[in-house]
């Protein structure tokens, strides 16, 4: 059965009857069996957690969520500080939607994207006011959905949070961005004094 670790919140497979005996494969925390009537009983989690279609405009096949991303994100950012890459220019390029082709150079390590009250404001009626957050960690970033009405997609998968690297696509409503890290060009050097 699928259970959620009380320690790190990772979802993992636990053989029937092994509650309280086997630890989480990631943090090794051993979940204690919950007693009936306490309101904290372990509930098996289905393989595919499908969004309630009454709360979103996404189609049924678009509504697949994965909690595996949360574990990957936690492991990737452990011990790292947010910040821009000193050797790369970090940008979002609009691939689809209003402003197609526009390149947005990111100048800070934490920003929000949305229709209003956001660092990157979108002219997209399907975007929530504060749709998602983008946290930069040098050579990669983390995108976190901010309880948006229509969800946030990374490479065509609906995510709560996900690790992204250069070339990955982020979709907010009808707007699709590509996350780009490009090497900064060295400033031109002065005239050469070579004697041939």
Summarize the entry for a quick read.
The protein is mainly β and about 200 residues long. The chain has one helix and 16 strands. It has one helix spanning about 70-75, and strands spanning about 1-5, 10-15, 50, 65, 85, 90-95, 105, 110-115, 120, 130-140, 140-145, 150-155, 155-160, 160-165, 170, 175-185.
Features:
196 residues, 6-stranded antiparallel β-sheet, 1 helix, globular, mainly beta
SSE topology sketch:
Layout lengths: L1 E3 L6 E3 L35 E2 L13 E2 L2 H10 L5 E2 L3 E9 L6 E3 L4 E5 L5 E2 L10 E7 L2 E5 L6 E3 L2 E3 L1 E4 L4 E4 L2 E9 L13
Parallel strand pairs: 5-10, 8-9
Antiparallel strand pairs: 1-2, 3-4, 6-7, 6-16, 8-10, 10-11, 11-14, 12-13, 12-15, 15-16
Provide an overview of this structure.
This protein has 196 residues and is mainly β. It contains 1 helix and 16 strands. The protein has one helix at 68-77; strands at residues 2-4, 11-13, 49-50, 64-65, 83-84, 88-96, 103-105, 110-114, 120-121, 132-138, 141-145, 152-154, 157-159, 161-164, 169-172, 175-183. A hairpin with a 6-residue loop joins β1 (2-4) and β2.
Helix content: under 10%
Question: For the terminal residues, how far apart are their CA atoms?
Answer: 75 Å
- Computed over alpha carbons, the radius of gyration is 21 Å
* Low-pLDDT runs: 36-66
Discrete helix count: 1
Shape descriptor reads: globular
Mean of all residue-level pLDDT scores: 78
Number of strands: 16
Estimate what percentage of residues fall within beta strands: 25-35%
């Amino acid at each position: 059965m699928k259970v959620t670790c009380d320690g790190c919140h990772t979802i993992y497979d636990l053989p029937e009857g092994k509650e309280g005996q086997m630890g989480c494969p990631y943090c090794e925390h051993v979940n204690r069996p919950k007693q009936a009537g306490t309101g904290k009983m372990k509930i098996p989690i289905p393989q595919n957690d499908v969004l309630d279609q009454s709360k979103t405009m996404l189609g049924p096949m678009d509504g697949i969520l994965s909690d595996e991303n949360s574990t990957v994100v936690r492991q990737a950012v452990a011990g790292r500080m947010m910040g821009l890459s000193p050797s790369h220019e970090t940008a979002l390029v609009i691939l689809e939607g209003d402003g197609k082709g526009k390149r947005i150079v990111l100048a800070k390590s934490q920003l929000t994207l949305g229709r209003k009250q956001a660092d990157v404001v979108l002219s997209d009626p399907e975007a929530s006011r504060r749709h998602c957050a983008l946290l930069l960690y040098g050579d990669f970033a983390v995108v976190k959905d901010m309880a948006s009405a229509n969800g946030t997609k990374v490479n065509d998968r609906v995510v709560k949070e996900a690790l992204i690297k250069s070339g990955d696509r982020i979709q907010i409503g009808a707007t699709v961005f590509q996350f780009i890290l490009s090497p900064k060009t060295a400033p031109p050097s002065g005239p050469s004094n070579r004697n041939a």
